[in-house]
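User: Reviewer 2 asked us to show a designed sequence for the structure in our supplementary figure. I'm pasting the C-alpha cells here. Could you produce the per-position amino acids so we can include them in the response letter?
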C-alpha cells in the first residue's frame, strides 16, 4: 500500500507531524510532499492512501492545502484518506477544521486529526509576535501537540 502525505507548515508544527507520520505509517512506501515548496503531482495514481494536513493562521488553513483538496477531490474520494490540522484555539477548532477541509472529504476520511499546536515564538516575525500576544495573550513558547490524538490517527490509518 503506497501513501502520500501532503502538508504545509509555517513554523514547523505540521511539518513535525508529517515527518512523524512518515515514520509511523505502515504497509508500504510513503512519500512526503511539502506543499509550500513542491508542486502538485500530475495525478494520484499509484497511491492507495493520502494524508493531507496544515496549520491554522488567522482562522484559515494554508491556501495550498485547500487547493490540493479541491484539485484532487474526485480522486481522493476513491482512496483511504486522513486529514489533520495544527491549531491553538480549542474553542474554534471544530469551525476551523470544517472551514479547512471540504465536507465530502471530511465525511469520506478514515481519520480526522485535531493535533493541537505550538507557539514557537523564536520563529515568528515581529508582526506574528505582536498578533499572538494580542490574540492569545501569549509571549512565551507553548508546546501543546496532542500525542494521544496523533497516535489514535496513526492507528486508524494503519488499521
Ligand atoms: C500569527 C499566528 C496566527 C495564528 N492564528 C490562529 C488561529 O486563528 N486559530 C488557531 O487555532 N490557531 C492559530 N495560530 C496557532 C497555530 O495554528 C499554531 O501555532 C500551529 O502550531 C502552527 O503550526 P505550523 O508551525 O505548522 O504552521 C496562530 C499562530 C500564529 C503564529
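Assistant: Here is a per-position design you can include in the supplement:
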Amino acid at each position: 500500500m503506497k501513501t502520500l502525505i501532503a502538508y504545509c507548515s509555517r513554523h514547523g508544527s505540521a511539518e513535525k507531524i508529517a515527518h512523524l507520520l512518515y515514520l509511523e505509517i505502515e504497509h508500504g512506501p510513503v512519500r512526503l510532499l511539502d506543499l509550500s515548496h513542491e508542486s502538485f503531482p500530475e495525478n494520484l495514481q499509484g497511491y492507495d492512501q493520502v494524508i493531507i494536513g496544515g496549520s491554522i493562521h488567522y482562522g484559515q488553513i494554508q491556501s495550498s492545502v485547500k487547493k490540493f483538496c479541491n484539485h484532487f477531490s474526485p480522486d481522493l474520494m476513491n482512496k483511504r484518506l486522513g486529514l489533520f490540522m495544527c491549531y491553538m484555539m480549542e474553542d474554534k477548532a471544530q469551525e476551523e477544521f470544517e472551514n479547512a477541509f471540504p465536507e465530502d472529504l471530511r465525511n469520506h476520511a478514515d481519520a480526522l486529526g485535531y493535533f493541537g499546536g505550538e507557539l514557537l515564538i523564536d520563529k515568528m516575525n515581529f508582526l506574528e509576535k505582536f498578533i499572538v500576544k494580542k490574540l492569545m495573550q501569549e509571549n512565551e513558547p507553548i508546546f501543546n501537540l496532542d500525542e494521544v490524538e496523533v497516535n489514535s490517527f496513526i492507528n486508524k490509518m494503519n488499521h
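For the response letter, you might also mention the following. The domain at 3-158 is CATH 3.40.50.360 (Rossmann fold). The chain is about 40% helix and 25% strand.
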